[in-house]
Design a protein that fits this description.
It is built from eight helices and 14 strands. It is α+β, with helices and mostly antiparallel strands. The strands form three sheets. It has a seven-stranded mixed β-sheet, sandwiched between helices. A five-stranded mixed β-sheet has the order 11-10-12-14-13, with helices on both faces.
């Protein structure tokens, strides 16, 4: 659907828009630039500007495509139905980690996914203050800052840290999962920016994640990047992630099949309190990391 040149062009467009609309406002927001959409979910003038700019540009890159942005979804939830239609859909998260951006933190990014036929065919994550742009094309690999990463090139690690929802946003189910992981000696970390987290999951070893929400603008691009890097992604039912929704949660992201299947087994109500995600027990931790 897009060539490598087309992928690079989109990456360049995103970087320029972010430079103009996001970085120019970084640490310069006024109270009038920030609004609460509810439950502490923030939106800024930068989010709205990025989404508007990319909507105009991306539909020209791929004629006949449509754009579904997070901020438009907040106002018109029915636009997500476009994921079930025939036209290619650009999913936009204009600023993932808006709270970090507002607070002057570095863990924010812009995420773009191109979906067609019920699956993700391409994705981009631009994390300007990490200094990285990650993009992936289904069946064609993953690129970090324009350089293709050899499949399976992530630095191997004997032990795995599992990322969960940030502590301030964890549900009761999240808390139960965290407790099970801790019982078998697994180190957990809170997610402080899912786009930045996916950059790390796709490019470094020793990382896994259990995500308890399935907003497609958060996950579609990153899951594709992890899969193209040689990692394993699945829903709790063992199926592939569906951008249109209906996914069994949590979403499982792992460096290899053994860790992925071990995490899924640990989610079962019948899982032993001593069973580790590596398939061993708490005395022989294998691929998991002690607290």
């Amino acid at each position: 659907m897009l060539s490598r040149a087309g992928m690079e062009y989109v990456a360049g467009v995103v970087a320029r828009v972010v430079e103009r609309e996001v970085l120019s406002r970084f640490e310069r927001l006024t109270p009038g630039d920030v609004h609460d959409k509810g439950d502490g979910d923030l939106v800024t003038t930068a989010d709205l500007a990025v989404e508007a700019c990319l909507e105009q540009t991306l539909t020209r890159v791929l004629p006949g495509s449509v754009v579904v942005g997070e901020e438009r979804i907040a106002a018109e939830p029915d636009v997500l139905r476009a994921l079930g239609n025939d036209a290619p859909v650009w999913l936009i998260d204009p600023i993932d980690g808006t709270a970090s951006f507002v607070a002057g933190g570095r863990r924010f990014s812009t995420i773009i996914a191109l979906c067609a036929g019920g699956s993700t065919v391409a994705g981009w994550i631009h994390a300007p203050l990490m200094g990285h742009t990650l993009w992936a094309l289904a069946g064609r690999g993953v690129y970090l800052d324009g350089v293709r990463l050899p499949r399976g090139s992530r630095r191997p690690a004997e032990r795995v840290t599992v990322t969960l929802a940030d502590a301030s946003r964890r549900t009761e189910a999240d808390a139960c999962i965290a407790e099970r992981l801790h019982q078998v000696g697994v180190t957990t970390a809170g997610c402080d920016g899912v786009g930045c987290e996916y950059v790390e999951l796709a490019t470094t070893g020793g990382r896994a994640a259990l995500f308890s929400w399935d907003k497609p603008w958060d996950h579609a691009a990153g899951l594709l990047a992890v899969a193209e890097s040689g990692g394993v992604t699945m829903t709790a039912s063992g199926e592939s992630f569906r951008p249109a929704g209906g996914n069994a949660l949590p979403i499982v992201v792992a460096p290899d099949v053994a860790v992925a299947t071990g995490l899924v087994a640990l989610l079962s109500p019948r899982a032993s309190a001593t069973q580790s995600p590596s398939g061993g027990d708490s005395g022989t931790m294998g691929t998991v990391s002690p607290d």
